[in-house]
Write a structure and sequence with these properties.
Cro/C1-type_HTH, 70% helix, Lambda_DNA-bd_dom_sf, Helix-turn-helix, mainly alpha, 3 domains, 345 residues, DNA binding, DNA-binding, 434 Repressor (Amino-terminal Domain)
Length: 345
């Protein structure tokens, strides 16, 4: 059933005239007539009020629309983008608006076209920029309030940036606070840093940046360690050594602690069953045990908001490392050595 048929059917079911529907929505009766005859579509901002008047939900109202594929969204976006340069901004805006009304249930399309048109609006010489801007923001707000969590989060990121540019910092922060933490982590953090900077909160800006830096450093180290493990399983020792050197460089560059460098070297020594090298590395790991959390003392992360006071002694770190070594069965080939026995006592 087309949207025109849905509107007509539900209006009659509720014993409403076109004039009554128009009155409820503060629009003209001919506009409702055009909807029912398929000449035009309701504006996206009227969908929820219209659905309430007809006593249905928006999904029922839009049930005629099938989901668009990514390729179709890309095609429509390309069409609107090309129209800006060929026929002017107004024509492109009208085409974008028609697509949004036609595919009102496709949040991805709405956000894509709104973002694209807003980008072109900044560079255009068109008059009434504020009018266009208001409409574009309304479309993005519609997506932000939608049920598609990922697309809604992307819309909230865009809105936060828009409000920040307008120096509406409270609204910008409100948008960021509505984004679930796992969603768009890096994009959210970057917008938060930019918002803090724009608000003059320099210490907080440093803190957010340093949190991102530390998180990314640990994640990169984890990924490199995984790749090294895969290479060792395939007996690609030369490549594993190359990746190990890169990982050790990362540890040093981001002040993650000497212990982690030795842990990387130990992986190679274990796979090669290099007893002497493994013994040397284990001794170094125990001696450098308290460097595990060196990042907490690094200048790179001194503005972090959640600072932890580390009350661990060197002895406690050593006990932790020794316990880990004792439980590691892949190190059994060195545990009978007198130096290791003495070390682990």
């Amino acid at each position: 059933m087309k949207i025109s048929e849905v509107i007509r059917s539900c209006r009659k079911k509720e014993n409403l005239t076109q004039e009554q529907v128009a009155s409820y929505l503060n629009i003209s009766a001919p506009a409702v007539n055009k909807w029912e005859n398929g000449i035009s579509y309701p504006d996206i901002t009227l969908l929820s009020p219209l659905a309430r008047v007809l006593k249905i939900d928006v999904n029922t109202l839009l049930a005629f629309n099938e989901e668009l594929t990514d390729a179709e969204v890309n095609k429509f976006a390309k069409e609107v983008g090309e129209m800006v340069s060929k026929e002017g901004y107004q024509k492109a805006f009208e085409r974008g608006g028609n697509l949004i009304r036609q595919y009102s249930s496709c949040d991805e399309l709405i956000l894509r076209i709104s973002t694209l048109l807003r980008l072109h609006l900044a560079a255009s010489q068109t008059e009434e920029k504020d009018k266009y801007e208001g409409k574009l923001i309304a479309w993005i707000e519609f997506v932000a309030a939608g049920s598609n969590e990922k697309t809604a989060s992307m819309a909230k990121i865009s809105l936060s940036a828009i409000y920040r540019e307008k120096e509406e910092y409270e609204k910008a922060q409100e948008m960021l606070d509505k984004i679930p933490e796992p969603e768009l982590g890096i994009e959210k953090k970057i917008q938060q840093a930019l918002l803090f900077e724009s608000s003059g909160k320099i210490e907080e800006t440093y803190g957010v940046c340093e949190e991102m830096l530390l998180k990314d450093a640990h994640e990169a180290l984890g990924v490199l360690s995984l790749i090294i493990g895969l290479l060792l399983k395939e007996n690609k020792f030369s490549e594993a050594e190359e990746y190990t050197e890169r990982a050790k460089w990362l540890v040093g560059m981001f002040d993650l602690g000497a212990y982690h460098k030795y842990a990387l070297d130990l992986s190679l020594a274990k796979e090669k069953q290099d007893k002497e090298k493994a013994i040397e590395i284990i001794i170094n790991m125990v001696n450098e045990a308290d460097s595990i959390d060196d990042f907490m003392k690094s200048k790179l992360y001194r503005h972090r908001k959640l600072k932890v006071t580390n009350s661990w002694s060197k002895d406690k770190y050593e006990r932790l490392v020794k316990g880990t070594i004792k439980q590691d069965k892949t190190l059994d080939f060195v545990k009978s050595d007198p130096k290791i026995k003495f070390l682990l006592e």
